[in-house]
Amino acid sequence: MLKKKLAVPASALALLGLFVTGSNNAEAATKSITPSLAYRYKQNNAYYYDLSTSDYYKDVWNTATAAWKKNGFTWKKAANHSKTTVSSYSDDTSSGLKYAGYDQVSYDLKTGKIISSKVRLNRAVFKKYGYTKAEQINVAEHELGHALGLDHNSSGSVSVMNPANRSYSIKSCDVKGMEKIYSTAASFDLVDGQEEVVTVTNYIPASAKISKVKTKYTSKTNSLSVTGQAKGANSVKISYNGKAVKNVKVDKKGKFKASVKFTGYKNFTLIAQDKKGKALTKAYKITSDKYATAKPVAVKASHPEEAAKLTYTVNTTKGSKLNFYYKNKLVKSVRANKKQVVVTFSEKELADKKGNFTVTAKAENKKTSQKAKFAIVPVGQEQTLNY
Description:
The chain is mainly beta. Helices cover 13% and strands 39% of the residues.
């Protein structure tokens, strides 16, 4: 966003930061070529000097620069000094916590030549919002992208230059953007005459993240216990089948816990919220395969004449209990000690039975699976399911 122009003979200053409040617009499409800014290096390589004092952040920068090198821009580590420096800082003030990092660039407005560049990461934000090391590296890659001349991609984009990025590494759209900038070498010839100074500030929203979600189903109460983390959020809204069912507070450590009574096998969604109930994250989805036992599958049903028995080869959850029902009456229970088991019915057990068995599976701390139909195949026949 252009703030102002001043007609003075000086270089230009750009501050490109990572703003950490707000949310992504997940509906926005990714631009196929990430846009560029007004400055660049002469060629697709540059030296940088790492001011980090900890091995942890030295590794973050090493990994981030290596990722760009792998994708075509070579960041070369300087031994003692460079016009481009990388480091981290900690600002936990209310204004400081808005930014996960920034890139402050001085450049010649007429030619786009970079004069100096300070690339920084905010450790306080990483701690408050629970960034993993991989996510911190993504932020470092994002800021290095600004340093080499890339602008933000669209909001909600799958791009390291997503304005609120913490989830993505360098993508093809970012590589294309970099390649477009450096398709030719720059001469940086001096231009006589009056120059203009412009200050540009780009923000990158990065809201709370829901993580470490665990579920446990209690059959006695038909309820699901949900625990997890939502650092930087005030509450978590829980919905089932698209309907909000509960708001649960997030404690000082960023943890939340809730129990929801329900029926069926629909999806739960979790959304982190601020004090005013505004969404800070996209919906975190809990599908039925997370809280319910997988539906058993008969991959083979064999009833040979010479064997005088019907056998089912069943794919199921290891440790689950398989229950076979005929006309709503339980006729056999089998404990599955592995993912695929063989269940056998004698001719006596099959007497007067035709059509199908109804089969369910039940694993510990999981809801009983949805019902499956196993055909009672006649003598001399076999059914096989091929994937």
